[in-house]
Write a structure and sequence with these properties.
The protein is of the alpha+beta class and about 300 residues long. The protein contains nine helices and eight strands.
Length: about 300
């Protein structure tokens, strides 16, 4: 057996393939390093664009390495594969999860479900995509990922096999704006007309800051996707799910990544406008001081 091993190592074809493989690895590492350095030096690119390009460069190098290895070692791989026919089933069972992850990566790439920098939700996990490879996808957990919690900021690694069985919600597929809902609960005796006016005023003041960019975004949606465009001004819906409360639901377009900040700003401006608007509880017939402000229950 040792003699066969020595004859294989000293075989000219084997040594040729070995040196070609080493040359391919060195070349790919050098090219990946140069491309990475060029991307990092581009000061005009946004951090997300740099991260996306580096992920694409790394994955392209990996694909070229796999293809080159198959081409270089084709005859040896073919002979080795024939000898593994008897245990092929066992290998498939043992590597089922890895195969599922690779298939999930292929599904993600071909369906263009999301890219680096997109905000997605998979199951109970929500965050911004910062890295992708053949086996897993890495997210940075975003704000509002859990009820009543602010920005979490934890890194979450998801196996790509999840994409084959779990729906993926891409919040950035149609651009950089989403509709944010802010919920306010009022007692039935309170003047909801004035509360609605205060909510609309607070929402309009926020939208005014990015109205021009929002209008451009809406035109791009109409031109590229042929979909019904979202409203560009705040709207209030009313629901009476609770017999003792009037629920106001403010909907307004907000930039991604600023939803929590804008929600807090709208709520603060709304609360500040309540005394000026005169929103007070109706007289209940009891000799008690007036409360002055309704219940605010962000959801």
């Amino acid at each position: 057996m040792l003699k066969d091993l020595l004859s294989t190592i000293t075989d000219v074809a084997f040594l040729r393939d070995l040196f070609i493989s080493l040359g391919l690895i060195i070349f790919l590492l050098f090219m990946h390093s140069m491309v990475r350095r060029a991307i990092l030096r581009r000061s005009k690119l946004q951090p997300e664009d740099k991260r996306r390009l580096m992920v694409y460069s790394r994955n392209a190098s990996l694909i070229l390495f796999v293809l080159g290895t198959v081409v270089i070692w084709g005859h040896e791989i073919e002979a080795f594969a024939v000898s593994l026919v008897a245990i092929a089933a066992a290998i498939v069972i043992g590597t089922k999860e890895i195969i599922m992850c690779i298939l999930g990566s292929i599904y993600r790439t071909t369906s263009r479900a999301f890219e680096v920098g997109d905000r997605i939700e998979v199951g109970q996990i929500r965050g911004r995509v910062i890295d992708m490879n053949l086996l897993n996808t890495t997210l940075i957990e975003s704000s509002a990922a859990l009820p009543n919690k602010g920005t979490v900021g934890r890194g979450v690694v998801i196996p790509n096999s999840m994409f084959l069985s779990t729906p993926v919600y891409n919040e950035t597929m149609l651009g950089a704006y989403v509709l944010q809902s802010i919920h306010i609960a009022l007692n039935r005796g309170e003047d909801w007309h004035l509360a609605e006016a205060a909510l609309l005023q607070a929402g309009a003041a926020v939208i005014e800051e990015y109205a021009a960019d929002l209008a451009m975004h809406v035109r791009e949606l109409e031109r590229n996707y042929a979909v019904d465009t979202p409203p560009t001004e705040p709207r209030v819906r009313i629901s009476l799910d609770d017999r003792e409360a009037v629920n106001l639901h403010l909907q307004l377009p907000v930039p991604l990544g600023q939803r929590a900040r804008i929600e807090q700003r709208v709520l603060r401006e709304y609360l500040a406008a309540l005394p000026a608007a005169g929103v007070i509880p109706a007289n209940t017939g009891k000799e008690e001081p007036v409360a002055g402000k309704p219940r605010v229950t962000p959801r």
